[in-house]
Amino acid sequence: MRALSTLSAALAALLLASVAAEAGPKNATVMIIRHAEDADSGPGISAAGQARAQSYAGRGWPGGRPSLLIAASDSKKSQRPRLTLLPLSRAIGIPVNAGFNDENPNGVARYLSNAGAGKTTLIAWRREEMPQLISALGGNPSSFLPGGGWPKGVHNWTVVLKFDASGNVVPGESRLVR
Q1: What keyword terms does UniProt attach to this protein (predicted)?
Q2: Whole-structure pTM over 0.85, yes or no?
Q3: Which domains are assigned to the chain?
């Protein structure tokens, strides 16, 4: 019985290690932002949110110019992540991939482990799911976010994750830009 328990523990550790190894894209940068400010009602963004989204089209990014744009998929309650990236998408001619449910950040990590290699990716996500996204990519949310979560009302931060040749987050080069 003890041998079976030890074998089960070893297999579980191996499975976790293989999942973690796929977490990040190789030689890449991933920048994560919160979507722009909410409209008073409905799934869109407010006038302040529209201004913020427009400003993204002309600003410099702390991790470099994005070559991939990803947004959490639209829901009945929110189209904000996609709407946040639309002006930038139009300005640089890169489509927004909004095919990822924010409750499944592992899907983004799997996608980026291949498609994001050697690239700079900008992700617009929802505040509540930000820690899970950072974890899925191989980062520790507490290393970037106070208390491990994205504060309510904060829309101007960027988490920058740098990945090495093995797809691991490089702690000394990854940071929160306020």
Answers
A1: Signal
A2: yes
A3: 2-177 (3.40.50)
